[in-house]
Amino acid sequence: MKITAADTIVTSPGRNFVTLRITTEDGITGLGDGTLNGRELAVASYLSDHVAPLLIGRDAARIEDTWQYLYRGAYWRRGPVTMAAVAAVDTALWDIKAKAAGMPLYQLLGGASRTGALAYGHASGRDVPEILDSVRAHLAQGYRAIRIQSGIPGLDSVYGVAASGAGGGDRYDYEPARRSGDGPPRPVEEVWDTRAYLRHVPRVFEAVRAEFGPELPLLHDGHHRMTPIQAARLGKDLEPYDLFWLEDATPAEDPTALRLVRQHTTTPLAIGEVFNSPHDYGVLLSERLIDYVRSAVTHVGGVTAMRKLLDLAALYGIKSGIHGPTDISPVGMAAALHLDLAVHNFGIQEYMRHSAGTLEVFRTSYRFGEGLLHPSDQPGLGVELDETAAARFPYAPAYLPVNRLTDGTVHDW
Ligand code: CS2
Ligand code: MG
Questions:
Q1: Cα 241 to averaged position of ligand 2 atoms, centre (Å)
Q2: Is the CB of 95 under 6 A from ligand 1?
Q3: 108-378 domain in CATH 3.40.1160.10?
C-alpha cells in the first residue's frame, strides 16, 4: 500500500486549521491534524517542504516505522512544530489503516472499553449571574461536566471568558486567537492580576455549587499563571467545592513545581496541553504529581505517541483528559475520541464545539448525547474534508493574546 500523495491543506473557516491528507496507490485517503494555534504556517511548511517528499513511495501500513523515521530521522527532535507534523502523518496513517481494515479506529486500538466518553463543556461569564446562565445553557445542551472560567473584577478581559459574557451559553463565542484590525497582524495584549484572581475564583465556585448542588463535575483552568505557592493556595481554597480538576496551575516548563502544589492540596491536578512529547511527563507520572494527562493527540505526536503515553500513565493510576479546544480540528478531535473509547484509563474529554463553518469543511460523524461523545462506527477516523469548502476559507493570520501584569511585565497568557 504505497503512498502516492501527501497534501497539506490550510483553511480558515473562522479559525485556521492545518490538515494533511495522505493518499495511497489504491485510492484510500487518510487525514491528520497539524494545527498549531498562531503558528500554523510553520507546520504547513514543515509538512509540505520537509515531510511530504519523504512519504511518497513509502508503505502506508508501516505506522510505527514512519513515526520513528520522522522523529529520530530528523535528528532535531520534539518541539511543537515537529511534533504537530509527526502527529499529522501518524493520524493520517491510522485513518488509512482503519479504513483498509473496514473498521472504526477504536477497534484497531483494542475495541471499546465504554459506551461513550464523558465530555466537558466551557461555561463562562463576566460575573456570577452570567456564569450561572452559561452553566444552565450547557446543561440544556446535554453536558454533564462543566468547566467554569470567570471574569475578574478590575480586569477587562480574562482567559476563557467569552467576549459577550456567554450569557446565553453560546458555544461559538470564545475563540482566543484573534485577527487584528488594520496594519500588520499583532497579538492583542491583556492585563493580569494574580492576587485579584486568587481572591475571586473561590467565591465563584461557592456560588456555582450553591446553585447546582454537589453532583455536577466542575473543572477550572489556571492557564499556567500561578507560582507554586499561589497554586497551592488556590487548590486548598477550592477543596470545599470538590473540583474534578485544576488545570495548568503552574508554568508547563517546570514539572517539579507541582511537587509543592501536591503537598498542600487534595484538589486533583491536570497538565500537558503545551507539552509536545510523552517525555515531558516523566516525573509527573513517576511521582504521581498529576491525576490527568492533558495533551492533544495533535501536539504530542499523534495516535501512536498518545497511546504510549496513556498506557504509561495507566501504570501509575493516572487518567486521560485529552485537550479538545476549537484549535484542535475535527480530525484531531475524532482521533481523541477513538482513544477515549479504547483505553482503560479514560478520565474525561474536553469538547468545545466547532463552528458551523468548520463543520462544513470537516464532515464529522462523531455524536454527542446524554453528556457522552462517541466517535461513530464509520471505518477510519470518521471525518472527511470537503476541499471545495476548504478553498472558500483562505488562511488569515491570527494570534493568541499576550499577557502583561499591571506594571507592564510580560506574564504567561
Ligand atoms: C485551553 C485552550 O482548552 C483549554 O484548556 O487552555 O483553550 C488553549 O488556550 C488554546 O488551546 C490555545 O490555543
Ligand atoms: Mg487549558
A1: 20
A2: no
A3: no
Active site members? 159, 223
Q: Could you tell me the distance, in angstroms and rounded to a whole number, from the CA of residue 27 to the centre of ligand 1?
A: 36
Q: Using an 8 Å Cβ cutoff, are 18 and 43 in contact?
A: yes
Instruction: Name the residue ranges covered by the structural domains of the chain.
Output: 3-104, 108-378
- In 317-402, which ranges are continuous DSSP H helix? 330-342, 356-361, 387-391
Ligand 1, residues 18, 33, 39, 221: which to mutate, most atoms within 8 A of Cβ?
221
Cα atoms in the 13 Å half-sphere on the side-chain side of 104: 21
Tell which atom from ligand 1 comes closest to the C-alpha of 328: 11
Question: Is the CB of 175 inside a 6 Å radius of any atom of ligand 1?
Answer: no
Per CATH, domain 3-104 is 3.40.50.261:
no
Name the one residue in this structure whose C-alpha cell is 509538512: 47
Minimum CA distance residue for ligand 1 atom 1: 325
| Of 156, 83, 59, 118, the residue nearest 304 (C-alpha) | 83
Name the residue with the closest Cα to ligand 1, atom 7. Answer: 325
Q: List the chain pLDDT tens, one digit each, 413 residues.
A: 999 999 999 999 999 999 999 999 999 999 999 999 999 999 999 999 999 999 999 999 999 999 999 999 999 999 999 999 999 999 999 999 999 999 999 999 999 999 999 999 999 999 999 999 999 999 999 999 999 999 999 999 999 998 764 444 444 467 889 876 667 789 999 999 999 999 999 999 999 999 999 999 999 999 999 999 999 999 999 999 999 999 999 999 999 999 999 999 999 999 999 999 999 999 999 999 999 999 999 999 999 999 999 999 999 999 999 999 999 999 999 999 999 999 999 999 999 999 999 999 999 999 999 999 999 999 999 999 999 999 999 999 999 999 999 999 999 99
The CA-based dihedral angle spanning residues 342, 343, 345, 348, taken in that order and rounded to the nearest 10 degrees: -50
In order of 197, 234, 298, 374, 375, the CA distances from 114 in angstroms are: 38, 33, 23, 10, 12
Ligand having the closest approach to the CA of 161: 1
